[in-house]
Amino acid sequence: MADGILLERNGIPAVSICTEPFRIPADAMAKAYGFPGFQYLLTPHPVASLTLAEVRQRVVEMTPRILAILGVEE
User: Fold this and answer.
1) Where are the domains of the chain?
2) Which residues of 47-61 are buried (b: 16+ CB within 10 A; e: fewer)?
3) pTM of the predicted model, to two decimals?
4) What is the pLDDT of residues 15-45, one digit of tens each?
5) Sign of dihedral through CA atoms 11, 23, 52, 57?
6) Residue 44, SS3 per DSSP
């Protein structure tokens, strides 16, 4: 979260991704960094146990939302 917020503050478009159990800490971090409206993506937990194919599938599923946060039209 912090990296995404810092990049955005410096004019570099970024999208942070975290798993669902970290929603509350992510919101708290965004607020602490003075960016309470920071948009980020949530993905189901866990990620570490996914196969490469499962990770790729998640990326495919998240891509439209990533592009939307970045302001890119498909």
Assistant:
1) 2-70
2) eeeeeeeeeeebeee
3) 0.83
4) 999 999 999 999 999 999 999 989 999 999 9
5) negative
6) coil
